[in-house]
Each structure stands twice: as structure tokens, then as C-alpha cells.
Design goal:
The chain is an alpha+beta fold. The chain is built from six helices and 16 strands. It has one domain: Roll (2,3-Dihydroxybiphenyl 1,2-Dioxygenase, domain 1), CATH 3.10.180. α2 runs antiparallel to α3. 38% of the residues are buried.
Length: 288
């Protein structure tokens, strides 16, 4: 039985579970991402509050979030300020308070303490010892992204860092992550995640990922540690799956975004792009 069609997707502690973007103009951002990925949006915040948060959906299933001021920045007297638009990655946790303490014990910092997001869950904003932001999500009603790895949905979040050894030490202590150098990059694994997928939404994952070209432990993979590209900034970077790289990049440009660079590997054709308000992300075409 295809459980993905009938059961909600859940995320064990330590697995990246959600992505969202903060934008100065929420409606303009929603129009852009609808055009690029075919997303639809539903309001998750009540009217009358100064902040809006939209849930992005693909074929009726949650893929991510889009937040920002209820009044676009350009209409509230601060049009001259630099945009803070960017994509954020969340790590699933069972206990936001306990994980926040563990982050501090591992050398990181808590920027925003555990904060309720209505009935959806609780979020925490933290920084690793290199100052790179990542967020925590203790799920209640909002369990995390409900569709991934299909065109228009989130694929992976990768850590771009020029201090990989220090980063690995921190994340291993904070989240229990295991790292494996597979040559072209360093894989981030949460041991047991593949078994969780096999018992819930993806019963064939171990068989499908048992080929000679698949890195050992890939079923447990949640992302990658990669070097910072020239002229790029370190940080957590979000990748979305697309059916065709060049067509997706063309849509980005046509809708007011920009193309930063392209890349090709044995597995993927990728393009790093920037949305009209400045948030950077990657679109990736799988060559399987």
C-alpha cells in the first residue's frame, strides 16, 4: 500500500523537517513561487496581526511556509532598507527546551527561545558556533513537509561552510548527526531514519537505494556539508526538485528573479537562483 497517500508524514528527532522563507512583500513572493513551482497558499495567521504566515501547498499537501509583515515593507516607511529575504531550514525535535539547552552546551547560541506557533507547534531559532542560523521545530498540528523529492517540492537542505570540521563537531553533539565523506561531498545522516521511512511512507526505500552507485547509509541521509562557493555566503541552503533545470531557471528569470550559477553532476543538473526579493535557493533536476 502506498502509505504516503493516506498517512501524514512524520519526522524523527534530528531530521530536517520544514523550510520557510521570510519576505518583505508576502503577496509578491506568493505570486513568484506559485509561478515557479505551482504552489497554492493558505493563510495560517488570523487577520489583524502585524505578521502573516502562509502555508505553501503542492497538490493539497504542505511543502513549506512563507512569512513576512502584514503590510509590505515598502508601504510602511522603510522602503530603503536592505531586504532580509532568505530561506530557513528547521530540524525536528521532540522537546524544544531540551534541544535548545543542548545547542548551547555544544557551543551554539539560542537567538529566539522556544515560541509557540499557534496550534502548529513550537519553534526555536539558534546559531551554530560559526554564526550560521538553523531553526528547531517541535511539531504539534503541523508535522512538517508532507511531500518531498518530487517536482515543485523540497529536496534537501545543505550546510555550506568553510569550517566543516568545527561544524560537524557541533551538529553531532547538538542533534546526533553522523557524517560520511563520500568524495564529492559530506553526507549528513540521522541513524535509523531510513528504517522510519520504510515503516511509514516509503516501504521500498532500502531496496531502491541498495545499488552499487548509492553511498552506504544513503537511506538515512538528510543533507550534505559542502564548501562555500566563490562569492557566496556560508549558511543553510535549500534545494527544490524540478522536472527540468533550464525551464525552471527560465521561469525564475521571467518572474523577476535571477540566475546565479548552474552546475552538473552524474546525478543532477542544478541552478542556484535568487528570487525577486533576494532569497537564494537551488532548483535540481534528478538524472535517474
Amino acid at each position: 500500500m502506498n502509505q504516503q497517500a493516506t498517512e501524514p508524514r512524520t519526522y524523527p528527532e534530528g531530521v530536517t523537517s520544514w523550510v520557510d522563507t521570510e519576505q518583505d512583500d508576502v503577496d509578491a513572493a506568493a505570486d513568484f513561487y506559485s509561478g515557479v513551482f505551482g504552489w497554492t497558499f493558505s493563510e495560517a495567521t488570523p487577520p489583524g496581526v502585524p505578521f502573516r504566515y502562509l502555508i505553501a501547498q503542492l497538490d493539497g499537501r504542505d511543502v513549506g511556509g512563507l512569512g513576512g509583515p502584514a503590510t509590505p515593507a515598502g508601504q510602511s516607511g522603510d522602503a530603503g532598507r536592505e531586504s532580509a529575504a532568505r530561506w530557513h531550514t528547521y530540524v525536528a525535535v521532540d522537546d524544544a527546551d531540551a534541544t535548545a539547552r543542548r545547542v548551547e552546551q555544544a557551543g551554539g547560541a539560542v537567538v529566539q527561545p522556544p515560541t509557540a506557533a499557534g496550534e502548529g507547534g513550537r519553534s526555536v531559532v539558534v546559531r551554530d558556533p560559526q554564526g550560521l542560523e538553523v531553526r528547531l521545530w517541535e511539531a504539534k498540528r503541523r508535522l512538517g513537509s508532507q511531500v518531498t523529492n518530487v517536482p515543485g517540492a523540497w529536496n534537501f537542505s545543505d550546510l555550506h561552510t568553510d569550517e566543516p570540521a568545527a561544524a560537524q563537531q557541533f551538529y553531532a553533539r547538538a542533534f546526533g548527526w553522523v557524517f560520511a565523506d563520500v568524495g564529492f561531498a559530506t553526507m549528513i545522516r540521522v541513524p535509523g531514519y531510513g528504517d522510519h521511512l520504510a515503516s511509514t511512507i516509503d516501504p521500498d526505500i532500502h531496496e531502491r537505494q541498495s545499488g552499487a552507485k548509492v553511498p552506504p547509509g544513503f537511506a538515512d541521509a538528510i543533507g550534505w556539508v559542502v564548501p562555500v562557493a566563490p562569492r557566496a555566503e556560508p549558511g543553510w541552503h535549500v534545494t527544490f526538485t524540478v522536472a527540468e533545470r533550464d525551464a525552471a531557471a527560465d521561469r525564475v528569470v521571467r518572474l523577476g528573479g535571477s540566475l546565479v550559477r548552474t552546475g552538473d553532476s552524474d546525478w543532477t543538473r542544478t541552478a542556484v537562483v535568487r528570487d525577486p526579493q533576494g532569497a537564494e535557493f537551488t532548483v535540481s533536476q534528478f538524472l535517474g
